[in-house]
Amino acid sequence: MKKLVLVYILSTVLAFCKDYENGLKAYEKGDYKSAVISFQKACDKGNMNSCYTLGNLYVLNQGVKQDYKKAVKLFQKACDGGEAKACGYLGVMYENGNAVEQNRQIAAKLYEKACEMGHYISCSELGIMYANGNFISKDYYKAMELFKKACEMGEANGCNYLALMYFIYSEKSGIEQDAIKAKDYFCHACEMGFEDACESCNMLSQKQD
User: Fold this and answer.
1) How many CB atoms lie within 10 A of CB 182?
2) pLDDT-based confidence at 8, cuts 50/70/90?
3) pLDDT tens-digit profile of 49-107?
4) Residue 169: what are its φ and ψ, rounded to 5°?
5) Quick one: which of 18, 88, 113, 137 could link to 122 by a disulfide (CB 3.0–4.6 Å)?
6) Which UniProt keywords apply (predicted)?
């Protein structure tokens, strides 16, 4: 009996993996309608990445008529199923009031959930909310913790904001200003392709030479 159950589970996993792969191939060819069909099949079988991808197609009006409400439902399903990117995307939608009633408290919770699951862009977004006190209690140290987590995992914006905390926000945050750390984080963000950080990196490098 256990062997039969295992065979069923494996066959189901392989089936939705195949549907997802077919969806990706169709999308790469520009055959969006076929991609939608494949992603929908995989989503219905429990592939949360497919649900998230399908939600994006509803947002982008690719292969289906643009429908933000449908996208929100798909993102919510994917988020509930453990897809970190979907939680992060939902957070953006709730923060900005896109297709849902604006609710920054819900946005913060979604960013936190996504961050804990490894979506480090969401760590930066939540850090910004803590730094600015956007409908959550302002907490510069919590913001720095989140920016550092994002930066260490390769999220350039997190490095940039961490540099700003050491350089610009230090006076009002109570965090000790540290131009050397600020330069290092600006330069790190620049190296990762965050162009806005490059000027600050060069400026501080020249001052410290």
Assistant:
1) 21
2) very low
3) 999 999 999 999 999 999 999 999 999 999 999 999 999 999 999 999 988 999 999 99
4) -85, 0
5) 88
6) Antibiotic resistance, Disulfide bond, Hydrolase, Repeat, TPR repeat
Residue 92's closest CA among 119, 117, 54?
119
Greatest pairwise CA separation for the chain in angstroms: 72
Q: Which residues of 42-68 are buried (b: 16+ CB within 10 A; e: fewer)?
A: bbeeebbbbbbbbbbbbbeeebbeebe
CB 158 within 8 A of CB 124: yes
What pLDDT is recorded for position 1? 38
Residue range 114-136: mean pLDDT, rounded: 93
Q: CB within 8 A of 158, min separation 6: which ones?
A: 120, 123, 124, 127, 146, 147, 148, 149, 150, 151
Taking a C-beta distance cutoff of 8 angstroms, is the pair 179, 207 a contact? yes
Other Cβ atoms closer than 10 A to 137: 7
Task: State the SS3 of 54-99.
Answer: HHHHHHHCCCCCCCHHHHHHHHHHHHHCCCHHHHHHHHHHHHHCCC
- Considering the entire predicted model, what is its pTM? 0.85
* The two structure tokens encoding residue 42: 């995989």
